[in-house]
Amino acid sequence: MTAKRGQSRYLLGFDIGGTFTDFVLLDVGVGTFWVHKVLTTPQDPSKGALEGIRALLAQRELRAGDVAVIIHGTTLVANSLIEHRGAKTGLLTTQGFRDILAMGKEQRYDIYDLFLKFPEPLVPRKWRRGIVERIDRTGQVLAPLDVEMLEREVRGFVAQGVESVALCFLHGYANPAHEKQAAAAIAARFPGLSVSTSNEVASEVREYERTATTCANAYVRPLFTRYVGGLERAFTDAGFTGQFYLMQSSGGTATPQVARDLPIRLVESGPAAGALAAALIGHQIGRSDLVSFDMGGTTAKACLIDGGAPTVTASQEVARVHRFKRGSGIPVKAPTIDMIEIGAGGGSIARVSSLGLLKVGPDSAGADPGPACYGRGGHEPTVTDANLLLGYLNPNYFLGGRMSLDVDAARAAVGALAEKLRMDTNAAAYGIHSIVNENMSAAARVHIIERGRDPRGYGLVAFGGAGPLHACAVGRIIGAPEVILPIAAGAASALGLLIAPLAFDYVRSYPGLVDDLDLTKVNGVLHEMEEAGLARLAEAGIHRKQARVVRFADMRLHGQFHEITVPVPAGELTKARLPELKAAFAEEYKRVHSHLYEGVPMMGLTWRVRVEGPRPEVALSHDPRTSRNGDRPAGDPRKGERHAYFPGHGFVATPVYDRYKLPVGFASEGPAIIEEHESTAIIHPGDAFSVDARANMVVKLAKR
Amino acid sequence: MKTVIDPVSLEIMWQRVISIMEECWTTIWRTSFSVVVGEALDFGCEVLDPRGNVLAHPWRSMPAFNFALPNCLRGMIARFPVETLKPGDVLITNDPWLCAGHLFDITICTPVFNRDGKVVAVMGGVANVADIGGTRARHTTREIYDEGLFIPPLKLYDQGKINEQLVEIIENNVRLAPMVMGDVHALVAANQVGAERILHLMDEYDLSDLEDLTREVQARTETAMRDAIRALPDGVHESVQWCDGVDAPFSFKTRITVKGDELKLEFLDVPPQLPQGGTNVTYSILFAEVVYLLKCILSPEAPGNDGDFRPITLEVPAGTVLNCTRPAAVNQRTRTMWSVAPAIMSALAPVLRGRAQAPTGYPTSFKTYGRTGDGHAFNDHMFQAGGQGASQQGDGVGAVMFPTSASNVSVEMFEVRTGFLVDEKEYIADSAGPGEFRGAPGQRVTLRRRPGEEGGQYLIGVWPTGLRYDNPGLFGGGNGSRMRLVSRKHDGAPEEEHLGGIFLDMDPHTRVTLDLPGGAGFGDPKKRDREAICRDVEEEILTSDGAAAQYGWKAQ
Question: How far off is chain A from B201, nearest CA to CA, in Å?
Answer without folding.
Answer: 11
